[in-house]
């Protein structure tokens, strides 16, 4: 990947939404909800606070859970990605 996020930002590749319900009903593309799970593909170096560098707790390859409307959607090298702050990530799966 040719993009490196700055400070406390991460780049997340959203995981595909489920195409079937538990009961086996197929969900069409226009009815799918935005995914809230993704994989971290790039991590910034961390932020500085009061002259001290705070390291990132996320690393490349982590599967994460984030808010439904978190981050900024971008298209890089043909892939749909999200750039968000580390604080927008709710949990590591």
Architecture overview:
With 93 residues, this protein is an all-beta fold. It has a single domain (9-92), classed as GroES chaperonin (10 Kd Chaperonin, Protein Cpn10, Chain O, Roll), CATH 2.30.33. Helices cover 0% and strands 42% of the residues. The chain is built from no helices and eight strands. It has strands at 9-14, 37-43, 47-49, 52-54, 63-66, 72-76, 79-85, 89-92. Strands 6-7-1-2-5-8 form a six-stranded antiparallel sheet, with no helix packed on it. It has a two-stranded antiparallel ribbon with strand order 3-4. Strand 3 and strand 4 (52-54) form a beta hairpin. The two termini are 23 Å apart. The model has no long low-confidence stretch (mean pLDDT 86).
Summarize this, please?
With 93 residues, the protein is mainly beta. Helix content is 0%, strand content 42%. It has strands at 9-14, 37-43, 47-49, 52-54, 63-66, 72-76, 79-85, 89-92.
Notable features of this structure?
93 residues, mainly beta, six-stranded antiparallel sheet, 0% helix
Topology at a glance:
Elements: E1 9-14, E2 37-43, E3 47-49, E4 52-54, E5 63-66, E6 72-76, E7 79-85, E8 89-92
Antiparallel strand pairs: 1-2, 1-7, 2-5, 3-4, 5-8, 6-7
């Amino acid at each position: 990947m040719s993009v490196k996020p700055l400070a406390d930002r991460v780049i997340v590749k959203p995981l595909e939404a489920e195409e079937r319900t538990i009961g086996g009903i197929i969900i069409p593309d226009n009815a799918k909800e935005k995914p809230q799970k993704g994989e971290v593909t790039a991590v910034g170096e961390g932020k500085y606070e009061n002259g001290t560098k705070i390291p990132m707790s996320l690393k490349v390859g982590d599967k994460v859970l984030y808010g439904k409307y978190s981050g900024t959607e971008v298209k890089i090298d043909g892939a749909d990605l999200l750039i968000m702050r580390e604080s927008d990530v709710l949990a590591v799966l």
